[in-house]
Amino acid sequence: MQTRRPDEAELHAWVDGELSPESAAVVAQWLAENPGEAARMAALQAQNAGLRALRGQVLQEPVPPHLRHALRPLRCNGAGRMRWRRASC
C-alpha cells in the first residue's frame, strides 16, 4: 500500500528533524517508496550539514538587540504552532 505523499512543508520539516516521531516515520516510509524524492531530501540534508559546518558558530551567538523584535510570535495558528513575525515587519 502506497503512503500518502507528504507536502513540501512536511518534507522540509522531516529534513530539519522537526516532525514528531510518528510523523517522521510516515515520511520515512513514503521516502522509502519514492527513491527519487529520497535522493532530493538527502541532498537537502547534505546542504544543511554543509551550511552548519560553514556557519554553525553563528547559531550560538546571541540575537542582536536591533533584531529581537523579529522573534516575537504573532499568534498561534490553531495547530499548536506559532506564526513568527517576518524580519521585514
Characterization of the model:
It is a single chain. With 89 residues, this protein is mainly α. 47% of the residues lie in helices and 8% in strands. It has helices at 8-15, 21-33, 35-55, and strands at residues 73-76, 82-84. Strand 1 (73-76) and strand 2 form a beta hairpin. The model has no long low-confidence stretch (mean pLDDT 84).
Percent in strands: 5-15%
Biggest sheet, spatial arrangement of strands = 1-2
Provide the succession of SSEs.
HHHEE
The computed structural class is mainly alpha
- The overall average pLDDT, rounded, is 84
Total number of beta strands: 2
Instruction: Name the overall outline.
Output: elongated
Query: Total number of helical segments?
Result: 3
Straight-line distance between termini: 46 Å
Rg over CA atoms: 16 Å
Low-confidence stretches: none
Q: What's the story with the biggest beta sheet?
A: 2 strands, antiparallel
Proportion of residues in helical segments: 40-55%
Describe what is shown at a glance.
The chain has helices at 8-15, 21-33, 35-55, and strands at residues 73-76, 82-84. It starts with 7 loop residues before the first helix and ends in a 5-residue tail after the last strand. The chain is 47% helix and 8% strand.
